[in-house]
Amino acid sequence: xxxxxxxxxxxxxxxxxxxxxxxxxxxxxxxxxxxxxxxxxxxxxxxxxxxxxxxxxxxxxxxxxxxxxxxxxxxxxxxxxxxxxxxxxxxxxxxxxxxx
Length: 100
Known about the structure:
The two termini are 22 Å apart. The chain contains 3 helices and 4 strands. The protein has a 4-stranded antiparallel β-sheet. It has a single domain, classed as Enolase-like, domain 1 (2-Layer Sandwich). Helix 2 packs across helix 3. By secondary structure, it is α+β, with helices and mostly antiparallel strands.
């Protein structure tokens, strides 16, 4: 079973991701033409995740991946931002597979 689900709704890709090893339990990102339209998080640090969602809005997903990959959270080897980058990488990989 995959931790990511992609659905196209009215030309917008909606991805839902179940992160691992962090407080957030689910992430949903809406993407159009590789641009983040918005991001929502269930669980986790509400203020921080709300801020991340606002900061990445309008950003190319490759830039989001570049900025967020590898960020730890305290003593954890991953973080919600890192998990978001993993979700976006999985999204790109699935989109490439579909095109091939």
